[in-house]
Fold this sequence. Notes:
CATH topology of the largest domain: Tetracycline Repressor, domain 2
Order of helices and strands: HHHHHHHHH
Helix content: over 70%
CATH class of the largest domain: Mainly Alpha
Radius of gyration: 21 Å
Oligomer: single chain
Distance between the termini: 64 Å
Number of domains: 2
Strand content: under 5%
Largest sheet: none
Number of strands: 0
Amino acid sequence: MEVTGVRRLTPQMRREQTRAYLLEAAAAVFAAKGFHTASLDEIAEAAGFTKGAIYSNFGGKAELFLALVDQRRAAMVAEFFPAADPTLHPDAAELLASISDVYRRLTPTETEYALWAEFELYALRNPELRQRINRDNRQRFDALVAVVTQQLTDLGVANPALHPETLTRLYIAVFDSLARQRALDPDGVPDDLFATLVTFLNDAVRHTSSPSTDTTPPPPTA
């Protein structure tokens, strides 16, 4: 009897599945032991693979950690900008609640922030890794600027008072600063504070923008 309608795992599907298991295991082991103390053997064992699977998929511990960071940042971007879009949430209270929900769910926990701080210090002493992080950050920043630019266009802001690159820097600065404060003093940074500051920035930009064409060159990126 011929069996039909069964989907077989392709090599690409197996690779993606392996990467997903390794990332899930890595997140748990890094959170429990920190970046330096966590070993590839422990991560591989937790995922049900050999250490060779990590090297073949990520190249090493730093690459594995950065893949986790990429995963978290991609989730934040994918959820934050739709949540902060006033064309999708025209009611002010709804907009505030929407941004607050994303922030509450995806802002780094105390453990996650401490882990990232540990990794940053490690990268500062590793020139090659530092260059890699800076290169990745520039690419992410350019992608964020494109999203911010499109949102301003959708809102009919042809000549914003702040250049999209500057506004993107402000978004990042507010998020990073509040993440640090929240890690140190969770009760001092309520869920809606980030949303309040973001909506304030958005309103300020829209209300102070000029309809004329902006000929001012963009500020240099870091």
